[in-house]
Amino acid sequence: MSSENLPQSPEQQPRKPRVAVVFGGRSSEHGISVVTAGAVLRAIDRTKYDVLPIGITSDGRWALTADEPERMAIADRRTPSVEELADSTEGGVVLSVDPANREVVYSEPGAVPKALGEVDVVFPVLHGPYGEDGTLQGLLELSGVPYVGSGVLASAVGQDKEYMKRVFISFGLPVGPYTVIRPREWELDPSAARKKIIDFAGEHGWPLFIKPARAGSSIGISRVDDISGLDEAIGEAQRHDPKILVESLLRGREIECGVLEFEDGPRASVPAEIPPVTAHEFYDFEAKYIDSAAGLVPAPLTEEQTAEVRRLAVEAFDAASCEGLVRADFFLTEDGEFVINEINTMPGFTPISMYPRMWQESGIDYSDLVDRLIQAALRRSTGLR
Hints:
385 residues
């Protein structure tokens, strides 16, 4: 018998790329990150990839979890946690920071560390600080492991709404009025900081939106209709971030657009519209993830408006040096102008989230979207690029 016809040994068979799905994390968006991970795990083509789920607990421990996406869903209006999914309450996963060694090791107190094999690409589905903000991306750069999504700079810019707006302004993108209260301002003179906000309202009018500067687009945000609600809104924002962002109300329609990296560059999806949410003051966390407010996909826009918002979305992607994916959020004001509100470098990514829905309407279903993001990450190197 020819050796060509002999079955290959396991060592000779080509190894499938191994994808580590990293989720959970230390931010207030821990639960929705777990939900997102469940959707991604269900969608990954197991005939093409091996998968390693790694959860990060709320206190920052990297935990090995079972590959059981059915346990990662919202139930009774409550999001799941990594703590509920972890194989052990003490064991930890360690990723080497040696670029020549991509092996993942699992260890428990008093036990011999166990090698879990090499990882070829990381799919981080963390939202907010300590995951979406460049911190995890920096670790993966040190480790030499490719990953889905934007790099260190773009992730940091995309997380900090102040510097995001500064970048957009420098590139000539339209941005609404805002001001920032830094931690030192509040600590040194709360009265002066409060007056700064009141003066801003005097110039731009009430209501205002008080936001954590470096949290997700739906966390810790309050609408303040007059001065009586200001202190409570500041306190709520500061529970999530000591730096707060203050924005004036832009009257108009909320329009979103997805951007996806293709081999020939970024392209924009059909846009979506977030209609007024009658049960909520604005499109907050409850409306987005719990009550599943129905967005209109595609948005009822003219051809010219659709082309313009898609152009602006790609410009925002490029302005912040993004990679992989971005959801760009806009207001279409009453005078017909688009104003960019923010970008999300790791947007909500459950099948009912707006980003996948926009690409579904654009001809790319959820599983294909996940595959395209993994392939884009595998094409990129780490380091300067």
